[in-house]
Structure formats: structure tokens, C-alpha cells
């Protein structure tokens, strides 16, 4: 499950383990590295001044599929590997990178990623909300440089889970990217209950039904990189295929490059088709088939609160270092809710997330449901 693209941003004590794997990469790099360049370098000339800029759209076992900046949809993608000089830096979908070597995109061609541009956002998750095990602390970068997190939730079959949505909201605010609630199966149920729960947030949302045009959603996706997350069965794949009818083909291309197998559960960026009648950038969506939950063990209690802007204000009246838990008698959140200034279900949800972060057992079925028939 933990692909190379997922294995990122580890805590210090996990770094040692990785040194071994990293050495493998280095040796791999050495093999393909051309002989030492005799080209003179001056102080002012940056290394790899001839590098081409690209955008990472898929990661599969040490191979990175990139789209060159300025490439048109039919241009071939470039397959690349990490250059040794990247050191410990991870490369994930969404990264803007500098590429050298064979960037032709021809069959069998291999380029090298020599630089990663600073990221303007980093969407992270912890594998499991369990701080007591190494796996639980494994923090992974899901996508870099995303602008928007599209939280896909069905209005029925399966019913919406506000616990999951709340979790995604925390991840979005933590990553500093904008959330968008995408409510599917609007033909089966109305959105009132869900929207009522989020009234205080003024959360942007779109309703999706099988026969409705996707214009509203497309305009919200235009010009941005949007990450789609959702539980199994909510209609995310259906939506991706409607948004990017060639998605299957695109995924097929990626798998061909990725050593012929398409078992990847990591994120894949898909270019949205051009918007009719406008030259505007239609944007990219990032599908995340492997992300079924957003473990938040890496998010501090205070940052967790940022996912609950309807509650934040209350905490100015909390005692210093208030843990905001239900057993904290002086926590101002209880009075806030009692006064009707926020929905008690939101406070309960916040406290459930707090508890799950602390490694307490939470009723799994409530905030973090697994499979659904
Ligand atoms: N009524 C209704 N059914 C839908 C809608 N969107 C998707 N479905 C159905 O819901 C089921 C699940 O859809 P998928 O697109 O496979 O859901 P998913 O979220 O990708 O789930 P996984 O395939 O498990 O990843 C399918 O039977 C779809 O036909 C919708 O808007 N309305
Ligand atoms: Zn408090």
C-alpha cells in the first residue's frame, strides 16, 4: 500500500529505516548517471540551467510521470526518476519539478528530477490515527500544490458522514487549501440535512445528479488543482469519468509507463478537458483512490480547531492550555454550544477527532466508517 510516492515526510526516528531504501535510489541514480560532465561551470550559472519545468501527475514505484510546462494535452508525458542530488526530499503528485536528461517522452526514455519547486500547499494525512505505533505516526504527503479539496459525499446510498467530512475539512484547513463540498446522488435525497450541519461555515458546495450538467463544478475547478476525496461508493469514479471522459485512457497511459501494471493506489492528476468557448485553463483534478480516510495524528489540537471555524471564537474564554475535551469543566466550548452559538453536533465531532488523535478508541463506525455495502 505504501508506494514510494506515499512514503514521505517521516518523523525523525523513522528516518534511519529509510536511509537504507534511500541508498538503493542513490545507486540506481548512479547507474544511469552519465559520466562526469567536463562542461565548465561558473559560479553564477545554476546547475542544470537547461532543465525543463514539469508537473508530476503520477508516482509509481520510483517512477514519476511528468507533464512538461506548456505541453498540450496530446503531448507525451515524461517518465523520470529522482536525481541523487534531491537528497531526502520527497516528490509527490502536484510537485513542480525541474527535469534533465531525456525529456522527449519517447518510449523507454528516462529523465531525472533535479529540483523541486517550493510547495504552496501540502495536503497530508497520517496513515492511522494511532500515535502509539510507528505505522500510526506515518505521515504522508498526499498531494503538493493543490488549491482545493473536493470532498465527495453521497446524499444517500451511502448516507453522508459528517465525521468524514469534518475530518477532510481539518485536513484542508491544515493544508491551507480551500474545501468544496461535492454532494452526489442528489437524485436520491436532498442536501438540507448536511447543509444545515454546516450553516455556520458557509462552505461552498455543488449538487451532482446523474443527468445534471457539470457546469457549476467545472467552473469551480477551472484554473486550479483540485484533489478529490471520498468514501467508496459515493460516486467519485463516476464523477471523475464524467469530468474527464478520457480518464481511463489517461490512467492506461500512466500504467504503461509504470512498468505495465496498474495497481497503484496513489494519487493521479488528470487534466480537465478544455472549457467550450474559453481559452481559460480548465484545471486539473487529482483522484486519490488510495485515500479512504484522513488520519490527523500529525495535526496539533489547535490546528484541529481550524477545521471548526464555528467553534474557534469560543476558545478565547477557555483557561490557558485548555485541552477542550468534554471532561475539562472550564472549557468555554460547552457554554458556547449551550447558548446556541454553534451546533452541538459540531462540538461532538471536534471532540471525537480530538480523542482519536490522542489515540483513544473512538467508535469506528461513527467518525471513520470502513466498508459500506
Ligand atoms: N443514483 C445515483 N447513483 C449514482 C450517482 N453517481 C454514482 N452512482 C452509482 O453509485 C455507485 C458507486 O459509484 P462509483 O462511482 O463506483 O463510486 P466510487 O466512489 O468511485 O466508489 P469506488 O468505486 O468503490 O471507489 C455506482 O453504482 C454508480 O452507478 C448519482 O449521482 N446518482
Ligand atoms: Zn476549551
TrEMBL record:
Gene Ontology CC terms, in alphabetical order: cytoplasm
Location of the region described as Disordered in the Swiss-Prot/TrEMBL record: 1-49
Domain EngC GTPase: 144-292
Keywords, in A-Z order: Cytoplasm, GTP-binding, Hydrolase, Metal-binding, Nucleotide-binding, Ribosome biogenesis, RNA-binding, rRNA-binding, Zinc
Positions annotated to bind Zn(2+): 318, 322, 324, 331
Molecular-function GO terms, alphabetical: GTP binding; GTPase activity; metal ion binding; rRNA binding
Cofactor binding summary note: Binds 1 zinc ion per subunit.
Binding residue positions for GTP: 184-187, 230-238
Single biological process term from Gene Ontology: ribosomal small subunit biogenesis
Subcellular location: Cytoplasm
Role description: One of several proteins that assist in the late maturation steps of the functional core of the 30S ribosomal subunit. Helps release RbfA from mature subunits. May play a role in the assembly of ribosomal proteins into the subunit. Circularly permuted GTPase that catalyzes slow GTP hydrolysis, GTPase activity is stimulated by the 30S ribosomal subunit.
Cofactor names: Zn(2+)
Identification of the protein by name: Small ribosomal subunit biogenesis GTPase RsgA
The keyword Oxidoreductase is assigned to this record: no
Bias (Basic residues) ranges: 33-46
NCBIfam families xrefs: ribosome small subunit-dependent GTPase A
PROSITE patterns given in the database record: ENGC_GTPASE, G_CP
Keyword rRNA-binding attributed: yes
Assembly with partners or alone: Monomer. Associates with 30S ribosomal subunit, binds 16S rRNA.
Biased amino acid composition, Basic and acidic residues: 1-10
Amino acid at each position: 500500500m505504501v508506494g514510494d510516492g506515499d512514503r514521505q515526510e517521516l518523523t525523525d526516528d523513522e528516518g534511519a529505516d529509510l536511509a537504507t531504501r534511500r541508498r538503493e535510489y542513490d545507486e540506481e541514480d548512479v547507474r544511469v548517471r552519465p559520466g562526469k560532465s567536463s562542461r565548465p561551470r561558473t559560479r553564477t550559472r545554476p546547475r542544470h540551467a537547461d532543465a525543463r519545468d514539469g508537473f508530476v501527475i503520477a508516482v509509481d514505484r520510483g517512477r514519476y510521470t511528468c507533464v512538461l510546462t506548456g505541453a498540450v494535452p496530446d503531448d507525451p508525458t515524461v517518465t523520470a526518476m529522482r536525481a541523487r542530488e534531491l537528497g531526502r526530499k520527497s516528490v509527490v503528485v502536484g510537485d513542480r519539478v525541474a527535469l534533465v536528461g531525456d525529456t522527449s517522452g519517447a518510449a523507454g526514455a528516462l529523465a531525472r528530477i533535479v529540483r523541486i519547486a517550493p510547495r504552496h500547499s501540502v495536503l497530508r494525512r497520517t496513515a492511522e490515527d494511532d500515535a502509539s505505533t510507528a505505522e500510526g505516526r506515518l505521515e504522508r504527503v498526499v498531494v503538493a500544490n493543490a488549491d482545493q479539496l473536493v470532498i465527495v459525499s453521497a446524499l444517500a446510498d451511502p448516507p453522508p458522514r459528517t465525521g468524514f467530512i469534518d475530518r477532510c475539512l481539518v485536513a484542508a484547513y491544515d493544508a491551507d487549501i480551500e474545501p468544496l463540498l461535492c454532494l452526489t446522488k442528489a437524485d436520491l435525497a436532498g442536501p438540507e440535512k448536511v447543509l444545515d450541519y454546516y450553516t455556520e461555515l458557509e462552505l461552498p458546495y455543488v449538487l451532482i445528479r446523474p443527468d445534471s450538467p457539470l457546469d457549476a463544478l467545472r467552473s469551480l475547478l477551472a484554473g486550479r488543482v483540485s484533489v478529490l476525496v471520498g468514501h467508496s461508493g459515493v460516486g467519485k469514479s463516476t464523477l471523475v469519468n464524467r469530468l474527464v471522459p478520457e480518464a481511463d485512457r489517461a490512467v492506461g497511459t500512466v500504467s504503461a509507463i509504470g512498468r505495465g501494471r496498474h495497481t497503484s493506489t496513489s494519487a493521479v492528476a488528470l487534466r480537465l478537458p478544455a472549457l467550450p468557448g474559453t481559452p481559460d485553463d480548465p484545471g486539473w483534478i487529482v483522484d486519490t483512490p488510495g485515500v479512504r480516510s484522513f488520519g490527523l495524528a500529525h495535526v496539533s489540537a489547535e490546528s484541529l480547531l481550524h477545521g471548526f471555524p464555528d467553534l474557534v471564537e469560543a476558545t478565547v474564554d477557555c483557561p490557558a492550555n485548555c485541552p477542550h475535551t468534554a471532561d475539562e469543566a472550564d472549557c468555554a466550548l460547552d457554554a458556547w454550544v449551550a447558548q446556541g452559538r454553534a451546533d452541538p453536533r459540531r462540538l461532538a465531532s471536534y471532540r471525537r477527532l480530538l480523542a482519536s488523535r490522542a489515540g483513544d478508541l473512538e467508535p469506528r463506525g461513527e467518525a471513520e466508517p470502513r466498508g459500506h455495502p
